[in-house]
Amino acid sequence: LLVEMEGPLFEASSYAGIHRNLARALQQESGVRIQLRPGAQAQGLVPADLAPLLRRDPRRPDFCIRAGWPVLPHPPDAGRWIQRVDWEYGAPPHDLASLLSHGPDEIWVHSRHVEQGLIRAGIPEDRIWRLPHGIDPRSLHPGCPPLPEIRGLPQKCNFLFVGGPIWRKGADLLLQSWLQCFRREDPVRLILRLPGLSASYAGQGLAATFLKASAHPAAAEILLLDRDLSDAEMGQLYNSADILVHPYRGEGFGMPMLEAMACGLPVLATEGGAADDFLDRGTWLRLPAQEVQVEIDEDCLGRPWALDPDASALQRMLVAFPAQAHALRAEARQRAQTVHEEFYWSRIARAMLAHLRERMPMGTRPYSIVKSRSPAATA
Length: 379
Description:
Blueprint: E1 2-7, H1 14-27, E2 33-38, E3 63-66, E4 80-84, H2 94-102, E5 106-109, H3 112-120, E6 128-130, H4 148-151, E7 157-162, H5 171-181, E8 188-193, H6 207-214, E9 221-225, H7 231-238, E10 243-246, H8 255-262, E11 267-270, E12 284-287, E13 289-293, E14 305-309, H9 311-343, H10 345-359, H11 375-378
Parallel strand pairs: 1-2, 1-3, 3-4, 4-5, 5-6, 7-8, 7-10, 8-9, 10-11, 11-12
Antiparallel strand pairs: 13-14
């Protein structure tokens, strides 16, 4: 079986990291050959273990698994076109819905939130398959040492945010709440991991606002990390914190929350969105939110919406956490093994290959796909 993976691969972005780790897991499985086709905006160093997968096979791929944004309209040169999709605002744009309805042979989504949005837009349910993303327990586990930049700092309760400094991620809400809740003398620290500022979120962010706030003499400590971190260093970063805070308004999945759980961190995150699929009920501090209509640039099939987290509740939870930190962190460390068992990339890869072989027989087009459940819920 020859499978081509096309899209972001070597950039400093969450999506590229997902694609890389999935490729690594797939290439370890028997009976499959993986080849990589980086996206048009490819940048960054090619990891040595993935370099051989850039060689072109003379055969036509049986499947092309394409990812990235915007979704490309032209079909790949492959037997089957599988399009991975994340859309955070419920009702998808007209152009996207039309493309997905008439282009790919199958659409892969990674949360019920995205799945339901596409179904409500009229995309046939039997052409959508949902499976979660995964983690690599070799780099994401509770035993990682702290990140060197943080290891020597004075002991404080460390709150962590990982993601672009943009409205959809709730970065502005977190900063406002932080400045209202804490002062410089409080034994707390907000660590902001803001990946790919020059690429993934260029022109969208609040980076300058965060920099200004971190330099204010009265503000509680804010530590900004904007350098690229390896997978191993991401494990160290999570293990440098006491809690991940992610007051998001819209997510297609929410990788930092799953990664934090794999490292034994409790998570303070919005309730009612994509991450409801996997957040641990025992160590998830639920931030209440309401669905609100939003205005976006695209013309959508229906009213796009986002979550509006309760700012007052977020402030109360931030203030209350230091007293709960020890107990919640201990509980989250115990539960990390469950995350490793359910969401490790090898398990996701095996479920994916089984789906390709069993649901999509070669030599038939069009075909009917039998709906299957998420691998994290079946195996």
